[in-house]
Amino acid sequence: MKSAWERVEIARQADRPKTLDYIEKVFDDFIELHGDRSYGDDKAIIGGIAVLEGIPITVIGEQKGKNAKENIERNFGMPEPEGYRKALRLMKQAEKFNRPIITFIDTPGAYPGMGAEERGQGEAIARNIMEMSGLKVPIICVVIGEGSSGGALAIGVGDRIVMLENSIYSILSPEGFASILYKDSSKAKEAAENMKITAKDLQKLGIVDHIIKEQNNENQIDFEKVIVTLKSYIRKTIKELQKLDKDDLLKARYEKYRKIY
Questions:
Q1: Residue 92 in 3-state DSSP?
Q2: DSSP 75
Q3: Taking Cα atoms as reference points, which of 94, 152, 162 lies closest to residue 125?
Q4: Please, are residues 138 and 242 in contact by the beta-carbon 8 Å criterion?
């Protein structure tokens, strides 16, 4: 059985499948949409419209790179305010046209640079959390790698929270936790164990609704199997959520988060 720190290391692997890999395999006819209609286009967040077996879907996700060049282009998967505002624009559009929303979470956190703070990073994250809680369409959030801090929560308020077996979800990185609580960032391994950031820990706490297994019998990542399982889960869950009256959908979402927090 893997330790929490071992799962942290797997979640951070450069060659781990990213949001675009999942979009390509799970959905058809993806059309990417750009910009927040206010400042610019943040490549750390991608989003657009796709189709899942005839059902129009709005897809939004944080995108890391697989090499140095891609990571620089994608700002290492750390969104700035315009990225979250782009995501919110697409979510409001999804509500207008009654499209379910699927988000893919994979970020070490929102970008903490001075420019991002000047343009309202905290406000953008808080607004997304508030707006997502009231969107009248089904929302499924999938943690595929790192899910850290407000950077993850900004696209993480959903009717169902799904985690891949070796992903992590936490209020901040183990290094950040260790530096604050223990005054020593080198104690990150110990922090990871105490933070309860693994999929199994979070499912026990009632935060995560479903875990997608990643490994085959040889203990290796089986991406094709992950895709089949995830696609089936999303399809089945969307159909279940679409049967709910919109008021009942919002009530259940409200009660879910009241119970968790």
A1: helix
A2: G
A3: 152
A4: yes
